[in-house]
Amino acid sequence: MSIRWTYAFIDRPAGSFARAHAFWSAVTDTELSEFRGERGEFVTLVPRGGADACVKAQGVDSGAGGAHLDFAVTDVPEFVKAALGRGARLAAGHEGWAVLCSPAGQLFCAVPWHGESARPPVVRGSRLDQVCVDVPPSRYDAEVAFWSGLLEGWAAAPGSLPEFHVLRPPAGLPVRILLQRLGEERPTTAHLDLACADIPATRARHEELGAVFVSQGAHWTVMRDPAGGMYCLTARDPETGGLAANAS
After folding, report:
1. pTM
2. Which residues, 6 or more positions from 45, have their beta carbon under 8 angstroms from its beta carbon?
3. Bridge-partner residues for 90, per DSSP?
4. Residue 248 pLDDT class (50, 70, 90 cuts)
């Protein structure tokens, strides 16, 4: 089994899908691919200048949406088998790809690798580079064990706070995972994180494009995009993904 690329998938309600992909295309300086799916519910955010895409979006028919990961692998059946063996369940099987669900209930997909290798550049001092999975306390330890065991070659380590666990991919892969232990029992969800060299400047740019400030954390700012989806601006180096030296 070999994970050769990662995609962050933006999931938003179908009724606000247009607002979502317009906003995220603007903040990532990408162009929209042709829409795909029976209802035109899928689109890829294509970087300018020849880099490979690592962000996609879809309009969902039910629920508030959120985010999930796609793992582009050399052998989809092998990856699915490994995930099932570690406690995942198969949510939906398709020809050539599969939707899986982690032990805590987070959806993710196994898809074929198509040669992606060129990571998109930093855009205006920020980079969308992380999917944060928000896990209830009763499921957290099992979820950490699941992802740490499944993602061979990824560096798994405690984060900057006790409630965080980071899974850093091998060099060159564009999206990493943060597991966050919630302070209450509620369903598992996921959201997007951007690494920002200057959070106030990035926040101002996002607000110009229709995002709304929600709250301030230790070294992150919670925002709501024009489609209603929550995401975070984090004080991490956009090049390395690591916590900025001046963050506390």
Report:
1. 0.96
2. 21, 24, 25, 28, 30, 31, 32, 33, 53, 55, 56, 57
3. 100
4. very low
